[in-house]
Amino acid sequence: MKRLYRNLEDDTKKRIAQSLRGRSFSDSHKQAISDAMRQYWAKIPYRPSENNESNNQDHETSML
Fold first, then answer.
1. Which of 55, 42, 49 is nearest to 7 (CA)?
2. Buried/exposed 50-61: b ≥16 CB within 10 Å, e otherwise
3. CB within 8 A of 2, min separation 6: which ones?
4. Could you tell me the pLDDT band of residue 64, with boundaries at 50, 70 and 90?
5. Which of 42, 44, 47, 49 could cross-link 5 (Cys pair, CB 3.0–4.6 Å)?
């Protein structure tokens, strides 16, 4: 399943961290992972918050 937004629940973050705990990588491998993740996350938008959506609607309707 493809990720739609950047935001994750705290319990999901904890499960991911726990599954990755104890692994060791070489410095070059860490750098390769970092570069790949930076490119990946640049394409994933933040989840719009309800406040931002309501503010945008109010702003758009006030201009009519």
1. 49
2. eeeeeeeeeeee
3. none
4. very low
5. 47
